[in-house]
């Protein structure tokens, strides 16, 4: 999945809202950004503080970051109108859409360094465990990530049984949820979990945690040495989750925030690196049509 033309993506994103911005806008008193789980709250807040400052300066209202313990905290915040923007995984967006199609709208997607906008779910184990392939893991303890994670649950729950020829509950020993990507990575690294799954763009080197994703964040934080982990499974390409904004925000606010996000990598690469979990090429416009297959997959698999 590639965008053939990334140049002027920010201008395109701004133009998408230009007509709506002509309408009379209400004022907002604050702007609230939800930070999806996957790493500890302190690191999430630190990585996104530069974005908070930029949005606050742009909008001229207090801007706050919220880092709930799990994915559902951000999802419920968006559904309840208590958050104004978030970077969701595709499955998280699907849950919001299935519960309330009018709650949020997808506006931007992260573009990888090679121009693609997909990523993969990776199964992994400790290198010294003797597990080198998925087939080697029969009877081992296995952990999904968060039940609302695309790469940490939805896609593996569909693709792994197809690869194994049986449900994961029949193949593995104990099957559980770690609670998030960081918990999965640390759990395997420390030997508390035999096999788990997390996400990355699949570009660059395994020992670096690839170019972007949860592994890269864990490496940057000094939590793991990737040479002590081994990849045992890789999903098909998953569409990158969207940046979403609350649909009933004033159109001028949406216009300004989308323009800021679209230009973040060119304006402040260091900030973009922290916000977007590693190296990126930029941001490009996206809409609901890119996620219809994920919405349907979630409806069939999870039912909500």
TrEMBL record:
Residues 1-23 form the signal peptide. One of its GO terms (biological process) is transmembrane transport. The keyword Transmembrane does not apply. It comes from the Bacteria. SUPFAM superfamilies: Periplasmic binding protein-like II. InterPro entries: PhnD (IPR005770), Phosphnate-bd (IPR017797). Keywords: Signal. GO terms for cellular component: ATP-binding cassette (ABC) transporter complex. PANTHER family: PHOSPHONATES-BINDING PERIPLASMIC PROTEIN. NCBIfam families: 3A0109s03R, PhnD. Belongs to the phosphate/phosphite/phosphonate binding protein family. This is Phosphonate transport system substrate-binding protein. It comes from Dichotomicrobium thermohalophilum.
